Amino acid sequence: MPDWKAEVKARLAGLSLSPARELEIIEELSQHLQDRYEHELTRGATEEEAQRESLEELNAPELLGRELKQVERRVPQNPVVMGTDSATSIMRDIAQDLRYGLRMLWKNPGFTIVAVLALALGIGANTAIFSVVNTVLLQPLPYKNPGQLVMLWENATHLGFPKDTPSPANFLDWRAQNTVFTGMAAMAQKNFNLTGVGEPERLDGRLVSANMFDVLGVQPRLGRGFLPQEDTPGTHVVILSHGLWQRRFGSDPRIIGQAVNLNGESYSVVGVMPPGINVPSRDKWKDQLWVPIAFSSEEAQSRGNHYLEVIARMKPGITLKQAQAEMETIAARLAQQYPNTNLRIGTVVSPLHEEVVGDIRPALLVLLGAVGFVLLIACANVANLLLARAAVRQKEIALRLALGASRSRLTRQFLTESVLLATLGAAVGLIFAVAGLRILKTFIPDTISQADSIGIDARVLVFTALVALITGLIFGLAPAAQASNFNLNETLNEGGRGAAEGSKGARLRGLLVIAEVAVSFVLLIGAGLLINSFIHLRNLDPGFRADHLLTAKIDLSEVKYPDQEHRNPFLDEVLRRVRALPGVQSAAIAGNLPLTYNGDSMYIAIEGIPDPPTDQRMDAIYRAIGPGYFSTMGIPLVRGRDFTDQDTTETSYTVVVSEKLAQHFWPGQDPIGKRLKPGDTTSDMPWREVIGVVKDVRQNDFLAAPKMQMYMSYRQLKSLAPNALVVRTGVEPVSLATALRNAVWAVDKDQPVSNIDTMEHIVAAAVARQRFSTMLLGVFATLALMLAAVGIYGVMSYSVAQRTREIGIRMALGARRGDVLKMTVKQSLKLVVVGVAIGLVAAFVLTRVMASLLFGVSATDPLTFVSIPLVLMSVAMLASYIPALRATNVDPMIALRAQ
Amino acid sequence: MASPGLDRELKKGSAELLILSLVEDRPRHGYDIGQLIELRSRGALRFNVASLYPLLYRLEKRGWIRGRWVEKAGQRRRRYYRLTPAGKKVLASQRDGWLEFVEAIGRITGIQYA
Fold this sequence. Notes:
Chain A is of the alpha+beta class. In chain A, helix 16 (407-443) packs antiparallel against helix 17 (458-484). Chain B has a three-stranded antiparallel beta sheet with strand order 1-3-2. In chain B, strand 2 and strand 3 form a beta hairpin. Chain B has helices at 4-22, 30-40, 49-62, 85-109, and strands at residues 28-29, 65-70, 78-83. Chain B has a single domain (4-109), classed as Winged helix-like DNA-binding domain superfamily/Winged helix DNA-binding domain (Arc Repressor Mutant, subunit A), CATH 1.10.10.10. In chain B, helix 1 (4-22) runs antiparallel to helix 4. The chains are: A alpha+beta, B alpha+beta.
């Protein structure tokens, strides 16, 4: 076939046209000549004649040139300036590349929009999750030199408590005997009823050693910290939190020295802390106020009562190892001195940062990995798009190479375009991220500290920019590499198809599809496992009936209600009023409802059985409740009876135990009538007779198996006061909240009623963290699946379009549509199967990382590993079926005529 | 056939009108336009590459027609030209002008059209 292009080109020689324009003209005119040539052939001319006729069109030798000269704009020649600085010429090149890139993107709006959207989704998701990681994991704690701060725990692993809360005597000895810490302080939860300033309110507070704030390195904003001499019983001083000061005291600067009424006693305000300050406790309460811990002489000698949290600051130069070693020595010494309580108890020194973020880190890292994967899939999609478009630019590339552009320059230009695309994607992604974060924050469980301060800050922006750059380089590599591997002659001579459609291009795109499928597979498996795990969680039996249960906390002030004589009439009257409310089916008094309190356990002694050695004693959780508690809560009574009002301190002491406790101590026997008591056989607590057995309840930790439990009636407890009310309602529980509060206030208008909540909500909050991770991962996996489906669809569409002629021929030769469909779908199925196989291997490896997040489901759960591949393959098949269907609808005649 | 000189003059003056009117109802590519002109004039008028395309490009530069590369399934890509709104106006005025011109000549020379 004659070489039209060369002929046309020759006639354009004298004009200095821009290369792109010249190529356009060459292409258009060559087509015209080719049409003419074919036309002559069909009219019966020989090839020679036809060629001559066609070339005639071009003859009028200078006419074309002359005419075009008048029309076309000439490109001014850039003179080569000798001795220019290479930097500025690179800058100029880059500027030119940028302009060119922008123009290319503008002229292909469809492509640009799709690519930018895909990138925006990937980059935006990454930015959002990184913001969370940035604030929660990477942010330094608001204390001075937080790296020096550690928490100390008693190591009672053999009893099931590897990090047990220390007892006061142990703490005091640790503090006195160590040489590695500049200061050590203890803290304990305490609730305070604030009265005398309007509505009574129950506040979360904390008892702290006088030097707590020194250890933490925070200064009060107003007033002063505690003095060492204030850490004695009887001193009533208090430091307020900034929030409390603002909220209840109107930010009055004259608060220092004023008296406030807490738990019925007068406390003097000595200081106010700056905003955002909190002591780093495991429970993550937001303390409203702090009071010196002030151990009484009894408490200071208690070695068996474990309830403190201890913080210490390491001396400069001391390492964690050294601190650990010394504390272990001290612990060994104490174990020798006090074998009754400290046998085999060691000490654990743990960096503060670990304590604060340790339990959230695995989840966040998994999420970060997940969004990384989503971004990879988006990159693969954009790379595919770029590869497909590269076919169109073959001629441009060819001409520029022919004109002397270096391959490196070309590669650089492609990379510039890709980075430009990625930057656009990042800009839009930032918008997605800001919006997404706002939505995300409403779902973040508030057990994650610093949740409020999650936002886009400088570090996050730098991260986004880096991600954009790397992303652009990643997906730009594919077409850029293609450009530099270009074969010039091939392209100029051939009918216009180049490497993009050759086997190499197709293989590259195939690889990308496999990668997308594999990555989405891993994500889907992860999401599937989490969902499975969460379903298991929700189906856990808490041991009680959580529906239609209204709860409230009523902390009785020790001053106003110091003993049973004062407490019981109040509680009786409150109960009477509450039971009389319309809509109430039953009500009972309780102490520390399930899933709200993580403490109060003690080892017990069994009558007739000698005490086991101290390191083998099992703890039981104890609770103070009132008659009717079990029936109100829906806890089945398995044997015996419930408490009644007749069980008082005048009658014999009773106890109700859980099934687990009964089976542990009296296996195979009837526990009714047996006797036990808290402490060991020598303690002066009264023996209690077992009158009933109830089913186990998940008291402290929803996820763990229930521990042994025992219940005592508050009417038979001198010092342990109940603090809650449970009400089973026939109507919506929340609708009775106000009535409940009024019933209490009718009896004592200064009694704070707090934490009014439904039991269902409390149970849901216990799994809030898992729900959150599951939801997020589910969203990302779905996103990945959609992106992968789009990617597969795109690749299949393109490859099918390329094979239209082949398909047309096949169908014209009699192939049925079904066969053609099968053929094309099989082709893509091959890719998908390989992708799934690779994904399977990767998933096996990667899900071990998630194992700590799963509950009741193994990291290689068969159900998930079977169902997910099915889901993925069906989606992939659909994505390849549709373009195949379209291809078979093409009229074979048109397909045949295609070139 | 008219004399070559007249031929060229007539062609020049009416060439634009021809092209504009041919892309009025649907977009066409260069070869198509050339063929149509030859067909409909029954061979009286012929454009070759050297004269057709510069004209097309000139019209495009003026904004009276717009060319776009179109790739249909299974074909090479071709440049299709279509009439722009500005071009529509020009076509209408040129048509009127041409009709007036022909009438005027007719009145002067006595040539009548059936």
